[in-house]
Amino acid sequence: MIVTFDLFSALTDSRTGAATVLAELAAERGWPQSGEELYERWDGHNKALQRSAAPPATFHDVSLAAVRRAWSELDHDPAYAERDLARLEESVGQWPLWPDVAAGVTAVAAQHRVGLLSNVDDDLARRTQAYALVDPELVLTSQRLGAYKPSPAIYRAAAEAVAPGPLVHVAASARDVRGALEAGLVTVRLVRPGHVVDETGPRPSVEVTDAATLAMAVARI
Questions:
Q1: Keywords for this entry (predicted)?
Q2: Using an 8 Å Cβ cutoff, are 85 and 64 in contact?
């Protein structure tokens, strides 16, 4: 069995990591917004743009467009966007994993091959702390698969990439849970702060609140 994990919700506390950097930028420039507020505005545009994104647009391209939109809405000079995104991308290696991740993923890896299924570009995935916990051959990105979450195409491409072995995906965000389920993947929801299940979509049959119990949950599938 192959088990993939979402990178920036299930494994990485991306909100804390990115908001820390954005708070530094705001302080340096005297912006009134907090790092959290800047993150929310950027992340909202990022997710919206990913719904219609398709290669050859990279995750970097989408993120840059999102920063420009966010800064324009907040009356910040969008000319800052490229350097600000570069600073965010450079900081990704310091974005913290959720506290239960290292032990939880290692336990699953003792029984199954583990990888990532993420919208990010390959080079960005390699910079993250989660990369060291998974099989590099199973780092399944939008750049590699040619589609973006939550499109069913990325989940189907992931299943084809690991065929013939069955694929289980561990997701946390509402759109990732729904996208994986609607594409027909066996999906485990790992509950994380700030993420809920889409009330209008399907619900996963397996939910865990701590990565420490993932190995047991996957074994029961």
A1: Hydrolase
A2: yes
The pLDDT tens digits for 143-159 are 999 999 999 999 999 99
pTM attached to this predicted model: 0.96
- Residue with the two structure tokens 């889409």: 198
**Closest among 148, 137, 198 to 172, alpha carbons compared:** 198
Give one word for 146, left, alpha or beta, with left for phi > 0 and alpha for psi -120 to 50: left
Q: Residues of 166-189 as b/e, b for ≥16 C-beta within 10 angstroms?
A: ebbbbbbbbbbbbbbbbbebbbbb
Which residue is listed with tokens 């708070």? 23
User: How does pLDDT run across 171-196, given as a tens digit for each residue?
Assistant: 999 999 999 999 999 999 999 999 99
Q: How far apart are CA 213 and CA 191, in angstroms?
A: 12
> Are 100 and 5 a contacting pair, CB within 8 Å?
no
Give the 3-state secondary structure of 45-60.
Answer: HHHHHHCCCCCCCCHH
